[in-house]
Design a protein that fits this description.
This protein has one domain. Helix content is about 65%, strand content about 5%. It has a two-stranded antiparallel sheet with strand order 1-2. Helix 3 packs antiparallel against helix 4, helix 4 packs antiparallel against helix 6 and helix 6 runs antiparallel to helix 7.
């Protein structure tokens, strides 16, 4: 059963990484997945909570910081080591990825100086926790849902942010 799941997982990864790779995504994805660029969106969201969210938004903004810190640490130091799932470029050959400012396709799995685990994705866990919290906080106000969806959709394969295999 595990072999079947692994085979399906690798097939989905190959579909996304090989078949759906294209020059447009190669140009756009490094920009939208750069931590500096999507951090700007997070900061703008946080500031908008302070300015436009009323008392609930101001309290929620501070809770959101605590929530992301807790989620990030739980994901990084507890869940990832427990699952031990290596990044795709460390276990598969022929992975198309953005590394050191350029796109490359690996001939063989890349060796890592420090083992880096891919599951769960920290930024996906953080964004999910933030999105759920914001939904709970503002569930009667639909515009926050749009902001969260836009924020969540900024994921792709790079040397920092890889989908799992």
């Amino acid at each position: 059963m595990i072999e079947l799941l692994h085979s399906i997982d690798v097939s989905i990864f190959r579909l996304l990484n090989d078949k759906l790779s294209n020059p447009f995504f190669d140009a756009v994805m490094p920009f939208i997945t750069n931590p500096r660029n999507f951090s700007i969106v997070g900061v703008l969201l946080w500031v908008s909570l302070i300015i436009c969210g009323g008392r609930k938004g101001r309290i929620g903004a501070w809770i959101l910081i605590l929530l992301v810190v807790v989620t990030d640490n739980l994901s990084s130091y507890v869940i990832k080591p427990a699952l031990g799932r290596r990044r795709p470029y460390a276990v598969l050959e022929g992975v198309h990825l953005h590394k050191s400012g350029a796109w490359m396709t690996t001939d063989e799995p890349l060796t890592e100086e420090k083992i880096s685990y891919s599951l769960p994705s920290n930024h996906a866990a953080n964004v999910f926790a933030a999105a759920f919290f914001l939904w709970y906080l503002f569930r009667k106000n639909w515009r926050w849902g749009f902001i969260v969806v836009v924020r969540y959709t900024s994921t792709t394969v790079t040397d920092q942010r890889s989908p799992t295999i």
